[in-house]
Amino acid sequence: MTTLDTTSTLGDLGFPTAVSCYAPNLDMHRPTARPFGLTEQSMYLYGGWRDETGALHIVERKFCGPMTGGLWLMNTKSGKVTLAPESLNTVRGEVKREYSDTEHHLHGSLLGKAGGAPEEGLDYRLTPGAMHWREGTVMELSGNLVGPGIQIGSLDHELPFFYTSELYKISGTVLGEQVDGFVFLDHGYWPHGADWKEWHIFNRQQLSWTAWAAEFENGDVEWGQVCFGRDGFNFVAVASGDGPVVMDPTCRPGIDPDPDDWAQRLGYQATDGRTWVFELEPGGQMSPFTAARWGGYRAQAGRVLRSGEDRPVKVAFGWGETFMERIRDAGVGSVDALLK
Known about the structure:
By secondary structure, the protein is mainly beta. It has helices at 110-113, 200-205, 287-291, 324-330, 335-339; strands at 17-22, 39-51, 56-64, 67-75, 82-83, 93-94, 96-99, 104-107, 122-127, 130-135, 139-145, 149-154, 161-174, 177-190, 206-216, 221-229, 235-240, 243-248, 252-257, 263-269, 275-285, 297-306, 313-323. It comes from Sporichthya brevicatena.
């Protein structure tokens, strides 16, 4: 006699993930794109770079439709991550969006034109394989696409999730300093009606998620999206300029927190034993960004390299996110224990 499993409802598969690379094109960046029938809820531009003094700069701008909340521009010039005051004069509110077969253009400040506070002008242009991003006199960056993109899907009937990420190697000026580093262009898709910080991934499934990139002195670039979470929400997705390095829908975790719940190190191990380790930048606790969020969220800036990596690094950046209370509840061990 067969016993039916009645512990789950139809379509509840426990949030298993699937990851792979994809070939980017302009059409997928249109807000009218509908992967798996899902609608775009957020678009993110974020990344990090070094100036000539060695200081780390960190940036994030989020779009929800034509609306944006302004630019998070942070740096470590004071010895710890602080918000650059110039961020307060960047574009927020509604922007004009124009899409063609050859260019996507987000620009303008409708708030400023309506008589609001003075703002630096936003001018973001995406063309096949290239990006140009200017925030008035605050920063101007240009760069090229590095290899394929990374796509992440989580299957569930009621709470589906799809995510894409592309890496651009950039250079330019920020606050008058020459910089060299990376910008990620990401899109998040889920059913309409919830912001990211209201969605179940942020509020429950995610324990730690890190986006990172490293350029080596020989010109190689390796980058990825790596995550360990609850239920089946885990992945180690790593690519290079030539294609996928590992695309694994599982992840064994490790963490070394400090007494204030900031991650000093994070470990993400694929099924084959290859492990990528995040190490905190000195003063890399992203306190201003963290304070604007809830639920025990922590954002840390640092770098990620594969354990045992021996290629000299030219520039590296990692944005690590953790929820320490959830991590303690899950009994996650140390990075050293993971590497044994």
